[in-house]
Each structure stands twice: as C-alpha cells, then as structure tokens.
Design a protein that fits this description.
The structure holds 2 protein chains of 2 kinds.
Chain A: E1 5-7, E2 16-17, E3 25-26, E4 31-37, H1 42-57, E5 65-71, H2 86-93, H3 98-114, H4 130-141, H5 145-157, H6 166-175, H7 180-189, H8 193-206, E6 213-216, E7 220-223, H9 228-246
Parallel strand pairs in A: 4-5
Antiparallel strand pairs in A: 1-5, 2-3, 4-6, 6-7
Chain B: E1 8-9, E2 19-20, E3 29-31, E4 34-36
Antiparallel strand pairs in B: 1-2, 3-4
Classes of the chains: A alpha+beta, B mainly beta.
C-alpha cells in the first residue's frame, strides 16, 4: 500500500492526552485511516465531511490521523463525455425510472446541504473518473492527495466541472499546487493506471462492494456515509485502546 | 449506533482482515450508479 498522507485535521494535538499519566501527552503514531472512494460518489463527499466533523468534535483529545484515499471506480462503463444531465444519464443510459432518479438526487442534495455541501446536479457533468483517480495517485506522491480529493469532489458536485478531461484535471491540480506539466505527463502516460487498478483489486479482495468505505488502523471497517458521531466514537475508542495497550 | 466493542467480524464471503463497526445501519453507500441503504434494494 502506498504511503499515507499526513493529516492533522487542523488540530494542534500530536499525541493522545492521558491526564493520569506522568506525562500529560504521549506522542504516538497517527491513527491510519484508509478510505475507498470515487469522485463521482455523492455519499463519499458527505462521508468525508462527516469524518472531518467527527475528528474535529474530539477537540483537544483528537489523535493525529493519517488519511489515504484509495481508488474505487463506481461505473467503469461511463463514457468520458455524456451529453445530458445526471437525471438523463441514470434514466436513459441506465434505464432507471425518472421519478426514482429525481427522488434519489433530491434526497442526497438535502443531506449534502446539512453537511454544508451545495450539490448542483443540474450543472453536474457525468463522466468517467479513471483519469481523476490517476491524478489522485500522482498527487499522493506529491503529498497533495487530500487537497486534490477535496478539490475534485467540489469541482464535480458543486461547480459542474468536467473531471474526466485531462485539460480540466490539470487545471484543477495546478490550483492545489501540482506542477501542471508533470500532472499532464502523469495523465498522458497512464503511469498511474496500475496503481488505480491495484486499489480496486484490494477493495475486491476485502469484499468492498460499495463506497465510501473506511478502514481504521487496518483493523476496523466502517461502511457508508456514517454520521460524524460514529466516526468520532470509533476513532476515540481505537485511540484509547491503543493508548491503553501502550501503557 | 454501535461501537468498536460491539463490532462483529465480517462474513465468510468477505475475506477482510478487519472487524466491521456497524454504526448507523441506514448510512448510505454507492455501488455502481446507484446509492442505497445496505440491506435494501438499490434505488429504494
């Protein structure tokens, strides 16, 4: 598995507070969180926000975490360019009843709003996410995977940007600090295609059929866009268990 | 909502090396082009 991207969730505490220990804080390794996700997955963005909120809710007791995103291509048969709306795609391309599609999108838009996300399915440009995943692997090598993940999700769900085209991906990557020429070379060469497929194969080996899917410390799995308190409770408990084991 | 202590191991069909934290059973996941609550039919 590729190296994790360090993430402190904007929290100042490096270790776990142990009030009854001779040392108020014990510097410990960050808690590792691996997340299988797709840019075209509305619940992945919501789950991302919930995870971040859950960690933030722990306040000073929050352990440092290392978050790594892994590729999961929800719909590999999606064309890069699809003329039409999300409703058109799901109704015409996939044969789902229009009314059901609209209900689905209204539901997810409402939940997204409660998470502070302004989804715009009318503007969304449905596309294949393979190249976006390749760029995320390139960004991981540059230590910018978390930044690019957030940028691509925002671009796709709230800005109506086309995240399937190389030119647009390069532009978005440059916005978060990737070298544009190097990013373009990474995409044109297909150098990271194997890494994307390795992530997908790992998910299959784990029995992961849907996303988002979170693996904490390689020992605990959490499926779906769980509420923030679920993530907070799990992370606090896992940190406590590890802290206890180290005592 | 359950916690880590209540986690159960994954079923035999999923050879994952981790225990599942159930959390909120109505948490949505996406599979293919649809998103749904696990245990229901996609699109419900």
């Amino acid at each position: 598995m590729a190296p994790a991207t360090r993430h402190r969730a904007n929290l100042p505490v490096r270790g776990i507070r142990r009030p009854n220990h001779p040392f108020a804080y014990v510097v410990s390794e960050p808690i590792k969180i691996d997340i299988w996700s797709d840019i075209a997955c509305p619940w992945c963005y919501i789950g991302k926000r919930h995870l971040e909120s859950g960690i933030a809710s722990l306040g000073e007791d929050a352990p440092e975490v290392d978050i790594t995103y892994h590729s999961f291509e929800l719909a590999p048969d999606t064309p890069v360019d699809f003329e039409g709306s999300e409703v058109d795609f799901l109704a015409k391309h996939k044969g789902m009843p229009v009314e059901r599609v609209q209900q689905m999108l209204e539901q997810v838009t409402g939940v997204a709003a409660t998470a502070g996300l302004d989804y715009d399915f009318d503007a969304l440009q449905h596309t294949k996410t393979l190249k976006a995943h390749e760029l995320l692997h390139f960004a991981k090598e540059q230590g910018l995977q978390l930044e690019l993940t957030e940028r691509l999700l925002r671009a796709y769900f709230t800005e109506g940007r086309h995240v399937g085209r190389v030119d647009e991906l390069v532009e978005l990557g440059a916005e978060i600090g990737l070298d544009a020429d190097a990013a373009r070379e990474a995409l044109d060469s297909g150098r990271y295609a194997a890494a994307v497929q390795a992530d997908i194969a790992q998910a299959q080996a784990y029995g992961i059929n849907g996303v988002p899917f979170f693996v904490i410390e390689g020992k605990y799995g959490i499926s779906g866009a769980q509420p923030a308190e679920v993530f907070a409770q799990a992370i606090a408990q896992i940190a406590g268990e590890r802290d206890g084991a180290a005592a | 909502m359950s916690d880590v202590a209540a986690a159960s191991t994954t079923d035999a069909a999923a050879p994952a090396p981790f225990a599942m934290i159930t959390g909120d059973p109505s948490a949505m996941v996406c599979e293919g082009d649809v998103c749904y609550i696990p245990g229901t039919e996609p699109g419900e």
